[in-house]
Amino acid sequence: MSKNVAEIMVDALQKAGAKRVYGIPGDTINHFTTAVAKSDLRWIGVRHEEVGAFAAGGESYMTGELSICAGTCGPGSLHFVNGIYESHRNGAPVVLIASDVARTESGFNFPQEVDQKKIYEQHSHFCEYISHPSQARRIVTKAAQAALTKKGVAVVIVNGDMFTETDDDAMDWEVYRPQPVCRPSDAEMAELAALVDGADKVSVYAGIGARDAREEIMAFCEKVKAPMVHTTRAKEFLEPNNPYNVGVNGILGNKAGVEALEDADLVITLGCDFAYTQYYPEAKKIVQIDIDPTHLGRRSAINLGLVGDAKTTFAALTPLVAPKTDDSHLQAQRKQWGEDLKGYDNEGEESDPTLIHPQFVANMLDGKADDDAIFVSDVGTAMVWMLRHLKANGKRRFLNSLLHGTMASGMPQAIGAKLAYPERQVIAMCGDGGLTMLMGDLLTLVQEDIPLKLVVFHNNTLGFVEMEQRVEGLVDHYTTLHNPDFAKLAEACGFAGWHVEKADALEPAMDAWLQHDGPALLDVHVNQMELVMPPKIEASQVASTALFGVKAVLDGRTREVVDLLKNNFLR
Q1: Dihedral sign of CA atoms 127, 132, 136, 137 in order
Q2: Under CATH, what is the fold of the domain 349-570?
Q3: DSSP state of 292
């Protein structure tokens, strides 16, 4: 019995493991949405397609399974672009069904016609048209396989009239998900082991590519007395219950994480593609191990580049190296890591009941959130407070836009995470700038009955941008935001909201917010004059901030300079 292309596609997506489709219906996908309505797939109607792509990416990042977006013609499909780019860079297996005008009008600049392939092939692993109804299952299956095995986005482009074409669908195409193991050759492993044996102080710098290798890394670190530094994306996987962990490198990192790399004779980067070259150790031996050979040496000069998956390679390496007895390098960085953690706790203390520092909010949230909570943050300062002040325990999950660095990803990605794990507490840590960019989809929480928890760090500014301008010695421009009372906004949308302006009112409001059954928003006015302090403060940074002070005073903004000093340097 023949089926139309829309029905074949929906069946293929379900067999590939998809459970939800995010999008907005429209003329060129009406037959597709009809097929979805007759299936077990759940349609999640969003108010902006970008939210749909973020949400699909949030779901797929958390589960490792397929999710779907569907857009109608040029305008609808184009709205997905930023969220699709974010999902692709995050490694989330998402399939976008990008519809186009009818084939009879294609090529004549028909209204809403767009060359979807030119747009999407630059940020997808697979991007193809269904050119004949007999290709429908084959193309969709190959798209799903590319998304799942290569970890990213695949795009299927369909002309609107193609959905109604029929086929007997006789060929049973399937998705295959092989899991090969890979490590360097014996000769390369021997060379690596010799480098380890020849170094007095070894440090490991592990990234998201080493997410499955925590036990193997710890065994290696124990044998050679090495501290482990991790990237921000690897926090949830490598930090918990790891006695060799000393934190994070980079501008968002901590002193021990920076010094563990600077002080080592040999640094082994494992599954790590950290982009900022200024934070790699200078004039030291660096070995890079990555599953992708094109990543070798692209961030920093290295002494040895090897291809292998982290788990298999480190399991093979540890028996080859001689044990070390001098643990002074490890203990020095562990001591500093303890001091770094105390510093984060101290930053969260609030002695002034009329003022709320954002670290105070984050520390309280860390203590009150569930042990298996899922946290998703916007970029900017909200991301910093998550990464520095929320503890990873092996059960909690974390998601930030660390590779694409896009505003407004927090709330939408948290929607996808909550739909994937309805029984778990999911918390979106939102900046006021990020939330207001896609604020219309607060209505989606009510319409789709999604009991998400949102906390808004309400500082009336694009905080991270303002900080960047000030640290460069500039007077900040165009960063001020005029915001509503977000709690009242939540209530107007149909769900619960709390508004807090003083520190002594935060705890009861946070308790009520977390215990509320449905979607809920906690609007917290936090200190606007908050700098994100780097792990090491260079003289140039102090000089630049001082230069801002001089310029601000000359500009008649003396009060701001006083507040900046009081709230960051005189605490």
Answers
A1: negative
A2: Rossmann fold (3.40.50)
A3: S
Q: 3-state class of 13 per DSSP?
A: helix
Radius of gyration of the chain (CA): 25
Tell me what percent of the chain is helix, strand and coil, each rounded to the nearest 5: 45, 15, 35
Report the DSSP beta bridge partners of residue 248: 230
Tens-place pLDDT, residues 122-167 = 999 999 999 999 999 999 999 999 999 999 999 999 999 999 999 9
Following CA atoms 113, 114, 117, 119 in sequence, which dihedral angle do they give, to the nearest 10 degrees? -160
Q: What CATH number labels 186-337?
A: 3.40.50.1220
- Domain 3-167 identical in fold to domain 186-337: yes
C-alpha–C-alpha distance, residues 478 and 267, integer Å: 42
Residue 1, token pair as written in the block: 């019995």
Where do we find the tokens 């917290």? 524
Query: What is the rounded distance in angstroms from the CA atom of residue 115 to the CA atom of residue 102?
Result: 13
Divide the 571 residues of the chain into consecutive groups of 10 and give the mean pLDDT of each group.
94 98 95 97 98 98 98 91 96 97 89 92 96 97 98 97 95 93 97 97 97 97 98 95 95 91 96 91 89 95 96 98 97 96 85 86 97 96 92 96 94 98 98 95 98 96 72 74 95 98 96 98 88 55 42 43 47 46
Nearest residue to 183 via CA among 294, 307, 315, 318: 307
Dist. CA 89–CA 403, nearest whole Å: 6
Counting Cβ atoms within 10 Å, is residue 193 exposed (0-12), middle (13-18) or buried (19+)?
Answer: middle
> How far apart (Å, rounded) are the C-alpha atoms in residues 233 and 89?
12
Strands 3-4 and 166-167: antiparallel
Domain edges within the chain: 3-167, 186-337, 349-570
Contacts (Cβ under 8 Å, ≥6 apart) of 206: 213, 217, 228, 229, 230, 231, 234, 238, 269, 270, 271, 272, 310
Distance (Å, whole) CA 16 – CA 11: 9
Tokens 């916007």 label which residue? 378
Q: How many CB atoms lie within 10 A of CB 176?
A: 8
Residue 397 pairs in a beta bridge with 374
Q: Tokens 């593609």 — which residue?
A: 273
**Nearest alpha carbon to residue 121 among 93, 69, 157:** 157
Tell me if residue 224 falls in helix, strand or coil.
helix
**Cα(270)–Cα(230) distance, rounded to whole angstroms?**
9
Q: Which CATH number fits domain 3-167: 3.40.50.970, 3.40.50.1820, 3.40.190.10, 3.90.1150.10?
A: 3.40.50.970
Q: What is the pLDDT of residue 531?
A: 60
Total residue length of the chain: 571
Task: Specify the long-range contacts of residues 418-424, CB closer than 8 Å, at least 24 apart.
Answer: 418/374, 418/450, 418/451, 418/452, 419/20, 419/44, 419/55, 419/59, 419/448, 419/450, 420/58, 420/59, 420/62, 420/63, 421/62, 421/374, 422/451, 424/370, 424/372, 424/373, 424/374
For 350-400, write each residue's pLDDT tens digit: 777 888 999 999 999 999 999 999 999 999 889 999 999 999 999 999 999
